[in-house]
Structures are given as C-alpha cells and as structure tokens.
C-alpha cells in the first residue's frame, strides 16, 4: 500500500461506522472502494472517508438511502463537471439547497427534542434530590 489507501478497519475507526455498515453502504451504491489490494481487501481514500462522513451525518437527520444517493450524485457532478452549463449547474445547486434546507429543518426539530429531553432529565434530577436522605435532614 502506498499510504494513500486505507483498509476498511481504518476507515471504520475514522468514521465511527461499523464494518457491516460500511459494507451495507457499498452494497447500496453509496460508496465504492477506490481500489482493492492484491489480496482483494477493500481500499479507501480520504475522499471515500469524506463521502462516508456525509452519509453518517445524513442518517440521524432521517434522510433515506435514495436521498443520500441523490445528494451525493449532485455533489459529485458539481465537483467533477467544470464545464457544466449554467442551467445544469443551477439545477444541481437547487438540489443541494433543498437538502440543506431539509437538514436545517431537522436540526431545529432535534433542538426542540433536546430541550424537552433536558427539561425532563432536570425534572427527574430535582425529584431525586428532593427525596434523598440528605435533602430530608
């Protein structure tokens, strides 16, 4: 290996994804190893890791595999096609903007959920503090 490629175990450690999850994303066509070793092991680049990180960030926001694929397709085309005409570029940017807006909406929903969860935890903590022997003394 030339140092530019990583085996799946290192990628799993860097992305905090399981080997099984990485393989699932490969089977789903979301990420494809950049190469294979002579022994047939999957080899990944930093670009592959970045792609997996996009997927990892989309998952908790409720995006489907098809939506992940669509966004990655749009960003791949934006990154690779320097000679896109203005209409093609704008259509791709529109798709990315739609995902950004959907992500922002999900983040706001999660903030509300987190606030409610923190309130609930605080209520339970206060109840426990009121009912400990030290509080009663």
Any overview of this molecule?
With 137 residues, the chain is mostly helical. A hairpin with a 5-residue loop joins strand 2 and strand 3 (42-44). The longest helix is centred in the C-terminal third of the chain and has 45 residues, at 86-130. Helix 4 (65-80) packs across helix 5 (86-130). It has helices at residues 8-15, 19-27, 46-58, 65-80, 86-130, 133-136, and strands spanning 6-7, 35-36, 42-44. It is flat.
How are the strands ordered across the major sheet?
1-3-2
**How many E-type strands?**
3
- SS-derived structural category: mainly alpha
Helix content estimate = 55-70%
Q: Outline the low-pLDDT stretches.
A: none
Q: Beta-sheet strand percentage?
A: 5-15%
Radius of gyration, CA atoms, in whole angstroms: 22 Å
- Main sheet: strands, sense, barrel: 3 strands, antiparallel
Order of helices and strands: EHHEEHHHH
What is the count of DSSP helices, taking H or I runs of 4+ residues?
6
Mean pLDDT: 92
| Spatial shape | flat
Cα separation of the termini: 68 Å
């Amino acid at each position: 290996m030339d140092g530019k490629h990583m085996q799946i175990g290192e990628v799993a450690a860097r992305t905090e994804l399981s080997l099984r999850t990485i393989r699932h994303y490969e089977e789903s066509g979301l990420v494809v190893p950049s190469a294979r070793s002579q022994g047939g092991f999957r080899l990944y680049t930093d670009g592959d890791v970045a792609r997996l990180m996009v997927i990892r960030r989309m998952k908790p926001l409720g995006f489907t595999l098809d939506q992940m694929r669509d966004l990655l397709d749009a960003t791949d085309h934006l990154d690779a096609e320097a000679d896109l005409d203005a209409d093609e570029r704008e259509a791709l940017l529109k798709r990315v903007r739609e995902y950004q807006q959907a992500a922002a909406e999900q983040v706001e929903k999660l903030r509300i959920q987190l606030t409610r969860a923190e309130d609930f935890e605080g209520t339970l903590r206060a109840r426990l503090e009121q009912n400990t022997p030290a509080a009663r003394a």
